[in-house]
Model the fold of this input.
Amino acid sequence: MRNNKNLIFFAGLAILIVSTILAVLLPEIKFYHMPYHFFILAILLFFLYMNVRDIFILVMVFSSIIWALGIFDIIKDVNLLLFDTLTIFMVAGILGWYETTFKAEKNKFSYIITYKEKEIAEMNEKIRQARKESDLVTDEIKKIRHILNF
Amino acid sequence: MRNYFEGTLKFIVFIFGVVITFFLFKLGPNWWLTYLFAYNFVLLGSYVLMGGGMSMGFLVFIIIIYLMTFMRVLAAKISLAPFVVELIVSILAYLLLRKSSDINKYFIFTMEDKLKMMEGEFNALIVEEKNLKTGHDANVEKLLKYRKLMEIYNEIKAIKVFSDRVRKILSSTVDIFHKEKSISLFLMKENRFMKVVSNGKEDMFSGEKDKESLYLKNFDEWVINNKKSLIISDIYKDVRFTSSEESENIKSLISVPLFIDEKIVGILRVTSENLNGFSHEDVRFLDIIAGIVSKILVEEKYAE
Done:
C-alpha cells in the first residue's frame, strides 16, 4: 500500500516535470498548450492518495513555472494559458468538493465506530464484573457444599 | 445549505458546458484545444455531482464534440495529433476519477462491514450478559439456600434430643423449599418403618408402622431397591407410582436414600402440589440434607 502510494506520487510528479519540459520544447503553434493539459492527469493521480490541499500546492508550483514561460515569452498565447489554468483549478476545486463530501461520510462512520467500540468495551467490562461476581457466588456455594458433604 | 451549494455547483457545471459548446466553433482554431480541455471540468464535475450514470452521458456527448472537432481540424488542415491526445487525456482523467471513487467506496464499504461486525459482536455480548445475569441470579438463589442450610446445620449441633433435631431439620428444609411442599423422612430398621412428616406449619412423628401402610410405597420402594435419588415431574404419568387417596394433592416429588456406612437406612422425600415442582439442583440439595440426617443418625447410633 505504502509502495503504491509512493509509485503514484512519483508518477504524478514525473508527469508534472515532463509536461513542464514538453511545454518548453514543443512548438506552441503546432501543439498549443497540450503539455500543460497533462497536469490534469497528475492531479487525478495525486487525488488517489493525497488530499486536495497538497495537490493544489504542487500544481500551483508547476503552474507558476508554466506562467514564467509565458512571462519570458516562450509561451506566447497567455489568453489561452489563463483559460487553461482556470480549467485546471476548477477541476481541482471540484475534486476538493468531492473530498469534502467523502470526508463527511467517513467522519460519520468513524464517529459511529468509535461510539460502538466504546459501547463494546463497556459491555465487556460489565461482563467481566458479572463473571467475577458469579465466580464469588460459585466459590461460596462450593465452600458450603464442601463443609456439608461429610 | 450544503444542498443549496451542491445545486449551485451542478448549475455552474451545466452552464459551463453549454457556454463552451456554444463558443467552441465560433472562435479560431487556436482556441479549440483549450475549449476541449475545459470539457474536463464538465465531465469530472458531472461525475462528482451527478454520479456515474449522468457522467457517462456527458462522456458520450464530449466524444461526439471531439469527433466534430476532428472533422473541422482536418478541414482546417492543422495537426490532428494534439486533439487526439487531448481526447485520450480526457478519457484517462475520467477513468482515474472513477478509480479514485472506487477506492473511496471500498473504504466506506469496509467501514460499513466493520460496523456490522461490531453490531453483531455487541448483540452477542448483550446475549452473553443476559445469560450471565440469569445464571448469576440462579446461583444467588442457590447460595441463599445453602447459607440457610449451613445455619440449620449449625443450629442442630446445639440441639441434643434426637426427635427435636429431626423435627428442626425437616421443618427448616420445607422453609428452604417452598410453602406448598412437604417433606417426609422414612426410617427403616429390620423392615419396620418410621415416618416423620413436616409441611412447614406442623410436623408429626407417625411412629413405627408397617411398610404396607406407608403412602407412595411403590415409589419409595424404587428408591430403596435402586439406592438412587429420584425426581418425578408428574407422578400421574409415572408408571412406578400408584396413586392413593392421600396422594391426590401431590403432583411432583423428589426422593433420596439415606445411608450409614453404605447401608440404606431410610429415605428422605419432598413432595409438591405443583407439576414440575423440582429441579435436579433440588435433588442435589436434598442429597446434602440427607447427608446431614445420616450424620444425626450416626451420632444417635441408629444403625446399632
